[in-house]
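U., I forgot to send this yesterday:
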Amino acid sequence: MPKGRIRIKLKSYDHHLIDDTCQKIVDTAIRTGALITGPIPLPTKNEIFVVDRSPFKHKDARDHFGLKIHKRLIDIINPTNQTIDSLIHLELPAGVEVEVKM
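Result:
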């Protein structure tokens, strides 16, 4: 039986998608008998891109485009072998980046 913890970091552009993914991971871990800490929302990273509408004329006319990266953190404490197996076989959506540390 593995000891310690598994730390899962999730990143996504869509907050609904990342919340659904967190719920799937938490349900799977609880069903297999592991303790859960989280999901903890980490600060959202906002990137704003400013683009001139016209390169030569109307220099004051600009468009602003924004991009938000949502992040969540889940700790699984004292995972069992069944927890690890079920997390490996869990199907996650394509728009979520998952980083796992043991």
